[in-house]
Amino acid sequence: MRLYHTGFDIIKVPDLGRGRRNADFGPGFYLSPDGEFSRRWARERSGVTTYVNEYELDMEGLDVKVLDRDVQWFDLIYGNRNRVHDGLSAYDVVIGPIANDTIYDVMGVTTSGFLEREQALSLLTIGPIYTQVVIKSPKAASQLKWLGAEELSVEEIKSYRSLVNIEEDSFQTLFAERLSEFVNL
Fold first, then answer.
1. Would 41 disulfide with which of 6, 32, 54, 146, CB 3.0-4.6 Å?
2. How big, in percent rounded to 5, are the helix, strand and coil portions of the chain?
3. Taking the model in full, what pTM does it have?
């Protein structure tokens, strides 16, 4: 499986603690199988180079959990964001949709407890589905081979951020429409 990670570092050996404990699928090294999507995460920082690291993951012998946008997925995300024990720590690799509130700004509404569970899940399923792959175990990390890193120019970063802004505007409209069904705005 070909995977990508965008950031300010060349990362030849993943740090499994790099991912936030309260991220979608708990601690681990987060990647995307979609190189174009990964580039959308690029940020510009003065005096710092932005890289897209490319990897190949040998899936042979790994215990993999695949998730869909459903109640189990939502429960895991909600639990991780509320510091409940990571229910995925027994797996080597977790593959599943990125919660759209990680990509777009929804001001914490979806996992705040303000909405009913079904309403929150409904909001998290709006918009496109982007997949993330999380390396959870040292075994999986040992089977992740770094292939190289591409430097992104400031112009490329701005172009990718522009795409995200267009998509976010569309998402925000859909999100507001759905949210207004649940609360009086």
1. 6
2. 35, 25, 45
3. 0.87
